[in-house]
Design goal:
199 residues; eight-stranded mixed β-sheet; alpha/beta
């Protein structure tokens, strides 16, 4: 485990976890809403990082810089992806909730992204921070996971569009917090990135 300072003009700190063997693949993990306690230590991100490492994929979990209504946070994701792309051949992005939407948004802007996985993405963070238009512009493999009982975010438009596009869509019998589901979610995310980045 290595601490990393992400360049880009904002105070963005990250934790890099690498597998025992050398790897050319990494997943940048975007935390949930920082104003609601979201951070790189989120249990869902940690579980995914642990299982990715077991399959030989590095994971970069980071904290957003100072709150900027979603805009600075989008740039934080872009900068984390750029940092990863400078060091690894294959770059995936994962996000949960607010971070899931940011993962989709940033993946439209940075050519280095090879695959993106979004858990419980919110359809809209602001007028010009919307997940569906971002999703429509992506030509890389996309995985969307959502809780069937989630009433915290409006995920339905994202799931509907992803289904129409024949992206990989997985329904989970859970609410927004996915209590008791971390390991199964981590296994699904790991399998997705293994297929899209290692095969």
């Amino acid at each position: 485990m290595t601490d990393v300072l992400i360049p880009g003009g904002r105070d963005v700190r990250a934790t890099l976890e690498e597998p025992v063997t050398d790897t050319e693949a990494i997943v940048v993990a975007c935390p949930p809403h920082p104003e609601h306690g979201g951070s790189r230590s989120d249990g869902r991100l940690v579980a995914i990082g642990d299982t990715l490492r077991e399959s030989g994929i590095a994971c970069l979990r980071f904290d957003y810089g100072a709150w900027d209504d979603g805009y600075g946070e989008r740039e934080d994701v872009r900068n984390a992806v750029r940092w990863a792309a400078d060091r690894y051949d294959q770059v995936g992005v994962f996000g949960y909730s607010f971070g899931a939407t940011q993962a989709l948004l940033a993946s439209t802007d940075v050519d280095a992204v090879d695959a993106v996985s979004a858990l419980a993405p919110a359809a809209r963070l602001a007028d010009d921070l919307e997940a569906v238009p971002a999703l429509e512009s992506l030509s890389i493999p996309v995985q969307i996971l959502y809780g069937e009982r989630d009433t915290t975010v409006e995920w339905e438009p994202v799931v509907e569009r992803a289904t129409d596009r024949t992206d990989e869509v997985t329904a989970i019998p859970a609410d927004h917090f996915f209590v008791g589901q971390r390991q199964s979610i981590a296994a699904d995310v790991r399998a997705f990135f293994e297929r899209t980045m290692l095969e």
